[in-house]
Amino acid sequence: MFACRAARLPILGLLLGGLLAGCSGRDEPDQPGVAQVVVGFYAAQFLAETIGGDQVSVTSLTRPGAEPHDLELTSRQLIGMAKSDLTITLTGFQPAVDQGIEASDPRRVLDLGPSVGVTLDSTASHAPTHESHEGHSHDEGAEDPAHDPHFWLDPSLMARAASAVATELAALDPAGAEGYHARLAALDSQLSSLSDALRQRVSNCTQRDLVTSHAAFGHLAAATGLVQHPLALGPESDPSASALAEITDLVRREGIRTIYTEPLASPRVAQVIARETGAQTAILDPIEGINEASAGTDYLAIMRANLDTLVKGQQCQG
User: Fold this and answer.
1) Residue 282's beta-bridge partner residues?
2) No. of helices (H) and no. of strands (E), the chain
3) What CA–CA distances, in Å, run from 28 to 24, 31, 32, 127, 134?
4) How far is residue 148's CA from residue 219's CA, in Å, rounded to a whole number?
5) What is the C-alpha to C-alpha distance for residues 44 and 56, in angstroms, rounded to an integer?
6) Which of 306, 295, 317 is nearest to 217 (CA)?
7) pLDDT reading at 67 higher than 60
8) How far, in Å, CA of 195 to CA of 198, rounded?
9) Based on CB atoms within 10 Å of each CB, which residue in 42, 43, 95, 292 is the most buried?
10) Domains in the chain: ranges and CATH
11) H or E stretch at 217
């Protein structure tokens, strides 16, 4: 049902012919009757694995604990993408994946952007080098959540993405549609409960200003009614002296007690501001990847940990 397609590699065949021996692009043979799904980032991996169950085999292009923005594809990953039955991506989030899709021409590609209302600049680099918050031309730093790739931090948007994944898997494998939709229904229930918990527990907070290490929490702020104040546009960029002074003044003026850092980014700037203002730091996870330092083993667990962190850090009564 899911046949190998080495013949569909005119570009890679020229570049990587030595690695293409028949259909040998994976370390192990394809499982008969199991859809081969390639994803670019963790949220897509979670959706594909949760909805696909044992009907799919999911390969993530981003290794655990790595920044998805910085991804560079290997030749083997390109071949795996070319031979996949479905590649799930978010156009503009990972330029290497966009380029890999263009080069490898996968059989089916699902771009989650239209489903969640996120539109990113596919020509922009997602390794920001901006030195200030002025002129948010980079999608990663845009204050409009429509240009923030981290849609999964809003469970209601994650549910829309889940529906798109289930629909695509059912179209790919009609015989397995019942299983995909059953698992989708179960996930929808969990996401609905999580969305309700976010609204209820963060509805009565003393502090509404959310100071974060980088501009990854626009969707979370929109879902909870908080106001995001990022120290930097991207995880590898530093704020300018004027932006640093502005945030420091905000923390003092508004009596902000918590500045949020991330598991995969340096906490240095946040720690400096915390020391100068008497605030504390706490980890708020944008869930770009999971490793041994994560507060949970999957998306749902980390989102619940994030909620507990917010309730304490924002001085909520929920």
Assistant:
1) 260
2) 11, 8
3) 8, 9, 12, 34, 49
4) 7
5) 13
6) 306
7) yes
8) 5
9) 43
10) 6-196 (3.40.50.1980), 204-313 (3.40.50.1980)
11) none
Mean pLDDT of 17-28: 44
* Type of residue at 72: E
The partner residues of 21 in beta bridges, in order of sequence, read: 24
Q: Distance between CA 196 and CA 190 in Å, rounded?
A: 10
- Segment holding 211, helix H or strand E: strand 209-212
Q: What Rg, from alpha-carbon coordinates, does the chain have?
A: 21
* Helix/strand/coil for 222: helix
Instruction: Write down the pLDDT at residue 98.
Output: 97
Write down the pLDDT at residue 27.
Answer: 42
Nearest to 148 by CA among 173, 128, 171, 175: 128
Query: Kind of pairing, strands 209-212 and 227-230?
Result: parallel
User: What are the pLDDT digits (tens) for 238-289?
Assistant: 788 888 899 999 999 999 999 999 988 889 999 999 999 999 999 999 999 8
Report residue 146 as tokens. 């429509």
**Of 81-95, 143-157, 177-191, which range is least confident?**
143-157
% of the chain beyond a pLDDT of 70: 81
